[in-house]
Amino acid sequence: MANPDKNQKEEKQYLRMTLNERFQHFFLLSSFITLVITGFALKFPEALWVNWFRILLGEGAFEFRGDLHRIAAGVMVAVSLYHIGYIIFTKRGRRFLSDMWFKKTDITDLTQTFKYYIGKTKERPKFRRFSYIEKMEYWAVAWGTVVMGVSGSLLWFENTFLPIISNSGMDIATAVHYYEAILASLAILVWHFYFVIYNPDVYPMNKAWFTGHLSKEEMELEHPLWLEEIEKEEEKNKEQKEEQKESETEKEEITGKPEDERPAAETAETGSKDTDKDLINVIKEEIGKDGSSITEKPETKTDEIVTENKPEENKKEKLI
Q1: Tens digits of per-residue pLDDT, 196-238?
Q2: Angle at which helices 19-43 and 158-186 cross, to 10°
Q3: For residues 129 and 222, what is the distance between their CA atoms, to the nearest angstrom?
Q4: For a tag site, which of 127, 149, 224, 275 has the least CB within 10 Å?
């Protein structure tokens, strides 16, 4: 009887996120959560969960909160700048940006999804590497990072920017920073966490952010069109390797065959070379016997010499 656990382990895995991309996601995730907690602790200092910080950290809780908030902000800015360099200067990063950009098919997928949810169609939309949901999340994070970064910098360096934008500008920056924080928190906690954790299709969790891979079953369910592209590419590479292997095998068969199995032209050429070598060896043996140089003359010339000498011999016989 087959072991289902063993089959599950042996199931083919598809790379979803590289180690580099997982590290980027981890630092973004950890810095964002830290910013949310420390930021709302400042806005709602009398909240019950904030009192726990005061109990644990004592009188320095407020100062520690501010330092931790700024450190997390620095980490988020750093990982964002690194990500910009990643999508510009690496091949996989450029491919990532191309796949993450909106396309006309995203509108079709959106309408198809609504039809599926309300029962107008039984066919689920088929997504490529990134669905319209993931694209909206990604660009929302990009937009939110810019807004939070700019408004947060104004509040952080208040003494520098206050003379430039006045109190009204600082009030606007505070409001923008606060409401963008609420919007970003809801987007992550309600939207992103649902599709990654609570969605029945992936529950208890989509582990790609941790392991970096998806199983074939998960690919067929979430990204069937991307799976088709990968399989076509693998099949193409397999055919190319087989063709290359066949050509190498043919070359080895031609160069590695015995004399009787080689082509006629090659055998004839080799035979003539062997004959020349045998003739040279015979001459060397003859020279080695008497130490004199032997030159072989054609038989036809020998006959001519004999014929030319015959009249002289007849003359001698007459004289005698």
Answers
A1: 999 888 888 999 999 999 999 999 999 999 999 999 999 999 9
A2: 110
A3: 9
A4: 275
Is pLDDT at 95 greater than 90 in this prediction?
yes
Q: Candidates 1.20.950.20, 3.90.180.10, 1.20.1740.10, 1.10.357.10; correct CATH number of 11-238? A: 1.20.950.20
Cα–Cα distance, 102 to 130 (Å, whole number) = 10
Domain positions in the chain are 11-238, 261-319
CA distances from 92 to 79, 97, 115, 209, 217 (A): 17, 9, 34, 17, 24
Q: What is the mean pLDDT of the chain?
A: 83
Dist. CA 217–CA 227, nearest whole Å: 10
- Whole-number percent of the chain with pLDDT over 70: 77
Query: Taking Cα atoms as reference points, which of 56, 143, 125 lies closest to residue 151?
Result: 143
Please give the model's pTM, rounded to 2 decimal places: 0.73
**Which two structure tokens, joined as six digits, stand for 286?**
């003859």
pLDDT in tens, 183-194: 999 999 999 999
The count of C-alpha atoms lying within 13 angstroms of the C-alpha of 313, restricted to the half-sphere facing its C-beta, is 6
